[in-house]
Design goal:
It contains 13 helices and ten strands. It is an alpha/beta fold. Strand 8 (about 265-270) and strand 9 (about 275) form a beta hairpin. The protein has helices at about 5-15, 50-65, 85-95, 110, 125-135, 140-150, 170-180, 215-230, 240-250, 290-295, 295-305, 315-325, 325-335; strands spanning about 25, 70-75, 95-100, 115-120, 155-160, 160-165, 190, 265-270, 275, 285. Helix 2 packs parallel to helix 3 (about 85-95), helix 8 (about 215-230) packs antiparallel against helix 9 (about 240-250) and helix 9 packs across helix 12. The chain starts with a helix and ends in a 10-residue tail after the last helix. It has a single domain, classed as Alpha-Beta Barrel (TIM Barrel). The protein has an eight-stranded mixed β-sheet with strand order 5-4-3-2-1-8-9-10, sandwiched between helices. Strands 6-7 form a two-stranded parallel ribbon. One iron/sulfur cluster (SF4) binds next to loops.
């Protein structure tokens, strides 16, 4: 069996095993070279992080715990000097996506050849606007260069705009621009941390009035437009279910279409190996203790609390909640699993 088929078989086996987490987001570093306006990470950098050996040990534990899909982010994970070793190891076991702010990918091509997706963040095709959001001159040029270089090299690259009031009216055009060139697009949604827990695992999103979506009607119409476009555009890597969930957030009197499944379908790991259901809450333990903690009374209690929580709208957590179980995966494959077609390459 080739390593690609071995990976696919192992992933298929883990995907249908109930009672296990399916998605993990590992923020392997706090280091970042950007200064994005809606982000806390760059203000709270920490030079401490796990070694590559410790990360590999943690990845083994996540794989054995049932994790199928792994998102590696930061900070900017590509700033780690050992990123090639980490991605090489991760890609053997998980459907692996790595995020980059657009500054590093073109310089790290060899590290990226095995991953399932490199997600490049571009928030506007208007240079001045994009660079103002990232607070770095030249950010758009650099990101476009990365996208073009990766595509030329045959590395699976996608563009992931964060939808906010700042760029809401441009997202359809951004989508058309990249998908027209054969580059997949999926979205993040501007959200910010509302936790009052002083031991919140780590802080990501910062409250910023300019980013909060106030034109709800435009947001509903955006969701409708994208659902329509998806009928013929296979490079929009969203699902109908996810867009309906997103729409429900902006429709008067419409209830959320999902329940949060933090620490059930998904978990997050920080740069020190601490884990939590999501980054908004206190850390619940260490990735190295996950096997004995997963079925603990403490985790059961936390799951109940998270299940009723409606504190955030981070779109990745919504997606993991909806699709991170064997039943969810069946519906996802029936709809559109953004990574499924890449598994057998
Ligand atoms: S949003 Fe990402 S790229 Fe921007 S400052 Fe925060 S961690 Fe860095
Ligand atoms: S809704 Fe879920 S992901 Fe968001 S803060 Fe609550 S527990 Fe965390």
């Amino acid at each position: 069996m080739t390593s690609g088929w071995k990976k696919a078989a192992s992933i298929a086996r883990r995907s249908v095993t109930p009672g296990k987490p399916h998605h993990a987001q590992w923020l392997i570093t706090r280091k970042c070279n950007y200064r994005c306006v809606g982000c806390n990470v760059w203000k709270e950098q920490d030079q401490n992080e796990l070694s590559s050996e410790e990360i590999k040990k943690g990845l083994d534990i996540l794989r054995d715990a049932g994790i199928v899909e792994l998102v590696i982010s930061g900070g900017d994970p590509l700033l780690r000097p050992d990123i090639a070793e980490i991605l090489d190891y991760a890609s053997d076991h998980f459907v692996t996506t790595v995020y980059d702010n657009g500054s590093m990918a073109a310089k790290k091509l060899d590290a990226l050849r095995k991953v399932d997706f490199v997600a490049i963040s571009i928030d506007s095709l208007d240079e001045a606007k994009n660079d103002a959001i990232k607070a770095v001159p030249g950010a758009l040029k650099s990101a476009l260069h990365a996208v073009e270089t990766l595509q030329k090299e045959g590395i699976r690259v996608a563009v992931t705009p964060t939808i906010s009031q700042k760029n809401l009216y441009e997202i359809v055009d951004i989508t058309k621009h990249f998908t027209g060139k054969g580059i997949p697009v999926w979205y993040c949604l501007y959200s910010y941390d509302t936790s009052v827990d002083s031991k919140q695992l780590f802080r990501i999103g910062k409250a910023n009035d300019e980013f909060v979506i106030t034109d709800k009607q435009a947001m509903i119409s955006f969701c409708d437009q994208i659902m329509e476009m998806m009928k013929t555009n296979k490079n929009i890597l969203m699902t109908k279910g996810l867009l309906k969930a997103l729409r429900s957030l902006y429709k008067e009197k419409e209830a959320r279409t999902w329940k949060c499944q933090a620490l059930n379908h998904f978990l997050v790991v920080d740069h020190l190996g601490r884990i939590s259901g999501c980054h908004n809450h206190n850390f619940a333990g260490s990735v190295f203790d996950l096997p004995k903690q997963w079925k603990s009374k403490e985790f059961k209690e936390l799951r109940k609390m998270y299940h009723d929580c409606t504190q955030c709208n981070y779109l990745c957590y919504v997606a993991y909640s909806m699709y991170g179980s064997p039943k969810g995966l069946v519906s996802l494959v029936g709809d559109q699993w953004r990574n499924a077609k890449y598994l057998f390459k």
